[in-house]
TrEMBL record:
Start and end residues of each Alpha-D-phosphohexomutase alpha/beta/alpha domain: 71-215, 239-337, 362-459
InterPro entries: A-D-PHexomutase_a/b/a-I, A-D-PHexomutase_a/b/a-I/II/III, A-D-PHexomutase_a/b/a-II, A-D-PHexomutase_a/b/a-III, A-D-PHexomutase_C, A-D-PHexomutase_C_sf, A-D-PHexomutase_CS, Alpha-D-phosphohexomutase_SF
Keyword line: Isomerase, Magnesium, Metal-binding, Phosphoprotein
Residues of the Alpha-D-phosphohexomutase C-terminal domain: 506-544
Source organism of the structure: Pseudoclavibacter albus
Cofactor: Mg(2+)
The keyword Magnesium appears for this protein: yes
Protein name, as recorded: Phospho-sugar mutase
Keyword Metal-binding: yes
Domain of life of the native organism: Bacteria
PROSITE patterns assigned to the protein according to its UniProt record, in alphabetical order: PGM_PMM (PS00710)
Similarity annotation: Belongs to the phosphohexose mutase family.
Length: 576
């Protein structure tokens, strides 16, 4: 869209209002440089378009990007690139969020008659995480919310645990999890009847409205602050370590483990859990073991990204390791890698690990006679393999909307996972995905198998023989602009395919406004949904092989999943 004279005046006003309240010298210098480059607004007849050349035009486009919208607060809290502006993560935005969230908690406490609300705040090693966390504690405390700050940078699961352990009204974790290194974020939990889970509707909209009021009516440099907040005692970390160690229900066996926290905060806590269990320290990836928000070896510290685990694979190769364990930077996700048939190291998919951890849970429950009322849960776009496990063991099974804010709320949940490397194996302690407790469960399995002369690959083959071989494929179709996405989705709803590559579509349904599910005659399931952050539509394809050996079942499922994924992608392209 062209940036006309009136729009330039509005952008300059927004930027100057921002500068008047920004407590951060770095972002002030950054924004002043952009304003200087932009210069005075152009004349009324001279609009700036995406094609307008020159430094000044580029600076106006930068101002439009930074102030043309506001970083939205939703069920994932806040997350985005750091920098000056309403569409960036920074101290102004965090202060507005903190005071708005405090107002929400105070109003909720008054409505419910629960007394003074409380909040526990954690932070990871990303740039500015500690500063944002301390800003939050100071503003919350001054507003009348009893604030407790975790004593140092720690994993997200420790914060989620602390909300429940301390009986807090709410929690905030300052992290951008596995996002690019220039991002940061603000993850919000609610205690009480929400049980320490992430926020869901309508709380997200109510909190957002409180934040908007602060942003529109207050200057953050005039908001009261207090340093009378508390620091959480070390005992809260010890309690998390003890609770996580109890996840291990086997016998420690020799196993050569390579571990990386990907420059994140997982190592200290994970090491304490291993020590508690008597498991020797793994071989660590030296280049990535120390917390470092600049992420010097990876731009995208996400174990799912190609190349992200290369240093771990190199260490595993050098040391002839048995298994690679990796956490993302805030340690709420877990990646596991093994050697494949040709000797190369390969990361297992989230569905591969998810179904095996679910099976582990089911076997433990059966052994203890505790299957009644217990539920295995996963997201709609994750593999249906878990449903077979639930049926075989007489357990409940729940498919939820995507995200652990929904998975953690499944009635009777004893285990939950989603395909994006997130696993909830200890719901009694943490109502969120937890890469550390999931690591403990994986090591329990791997060590038991090693004692039997087997590996996780062998267990996967056993799963295929008992429940079927499930293969999951993701394929994305990218478009020129985000605005193309709703157009294509509308066309798809109006012309749902009846056949995909010669296989009949037996049912088609719209799960919600963003998810379409197709079931094929060969048992394949296709889920189509827009990306929440990029101009693309994602296809999640899950196929199953039920006949022959484990290898034959796998081959059948792989062929079916590939065929359906390619056909669905072609159908979407034709609609564009």
């Amino acid at each position: 869209m062209p940036i006309n004279h009136q729009r330039q005046l509005a952008l300059r006003h927004a930027a100057e209002r921002w500068l008047a309240q920004d407590p951060d010298d770095t972002t002030c210098v950054e924004l002043n440089a952009i304003l200087t480059a932009a210069g005075e607004p152009t004349s009324v007849q001279d609009d700036i378009t995406p094609e307008t050349p020159g430094e000044a035009a580029a600076a106006w486009r930068e101002l439009e990007d930074r102030f043309g919208t506001r970083l939205a607060f939703g069920t994932a809290g806040l997350r985005g690139r750091q920098g000056a502006g309403t569409n960036r993560m920074n101290r102004v935005l965090v202060a507005q969020a903190a005071r708005g969230f405090a107002d929400y908690l105070l109003a909720r406490a008054e409505r419910e008659g629960t007394g003074q609300p409380s909040i526990v705040i954690g932070y990871d090693a990303r740039i500015n995480s500690e500063r944002y966390a301390r800003d939050t504690a100071e503003l919350m405390q001054a507003a009348g919310v009893q604030a407790t700050l975790l004593p140092r940078l720690l994993p997200t699961p420790v914060l989620a645990f602390a909300v429940r352990e301390l009986g807090a009204s709410a929690g905030v974790m300052v992290t951008a999890s596995h996002n690019p290194k220039w991002d940061n974020g603000y993850k919000v939990y609610l205690g009480g009847t929400d049980g320490g889970s992430q926020i869901v509707s309508p709380a997200d909209a109510e909190i957002a409205a409180c934040i908007d009021r602060v942003a529109n009516e207050e200057l953050v440099n005039e908001l009261p602050r207090s340093n009378d907040y508390q620091l959480a005692p070390e005992s809260i970390i010890d309690a998390y370590v003890a609770a996580t160690a109890r996840v291990f229900q086997g016998t420690v066996q020799p196993l050569k483990i390579v571990y990386t926290p990907m420059h994140g905060v997982g190592w200290e806590t994970f090491q304490k859990v291993l020590t508690t269990l008597g498991i020797p320290d793994p071989i660590v990836v030296d280049e990535q073991i120390e917390p470092d928000g600049s992420f010097p070896t990876v731009d995208f510290p996400n174990p799912e990204e190609p190349g992200a685990l290369d240093l771990a694979f190199a260490a595993a190769e050098r040391t002839s390791a048995d298994i690679v364990i990796a956490h993302d930077p805030d340690a709420d996700r877990l990646a596991v890698a093994l050697r494949n048939s040709d000797g190369a190291w390969e990361r297992l998919g989230g569905n591969d690990i998810g179904k095996l951890l679910g099976w582990r849970t089911a076997k433990h429950l059966e052994a203890r006679g505790e299957t009644t009322g217990a539920t295995l849960a996963t997201s709609l776009v994750s593999s249906p393999a878990l449903s077979k496990v639930a049926a075989a063991y007489g357990l409940g099974y729940a498919e939820t909307l995507t995200g652990f804010k929904w998975i953690s709320r499944a009635e009777g949940i004893v285990y939950g996972y989603e395909e994006a490397l997130g696993y909830l194996v200890n719901p009694e302690s943490v109502h969120d995905k937890d890469g550390i407790s999931a690591s403990v469960a994986i090591l329990e399995m791997a060590m038991q198998l090693a004692a039997e002369g087997r590996t996780i690959r062998d267990l996967d083959a056993e799963f295929a023989e008992r429940f079927g071989s499930f293969v999951s494929v993701q394929k994305s179709v990218r478009f020129e602009q985000v605005s193309d996405i709703p157009v294509v989705m509308t066309k798809l709803r109006g012309a749902l395919p009846t056949v995909l590559e010669g296989v009949t579509v037996t049912s088609a349904e719209e799960i919600d406004k963003d998810i379409i599910r197709l079931r094929l005659a060969d048992g394949t399931r296709v889920m189509v949904r827009p990306s929440g952050t990029e101009p693309k539509i994602k296809c999640y394809v899950d196929a199953v092989g039920m006949e022959g050996t484990a290898a034959e079942r796998s081959a059948t499922a792989r062929a079916a999943s590939s065929r359906a994924a390619n056909a669905m992608a072609e159908a979407l392209i034709k609609l564009s």
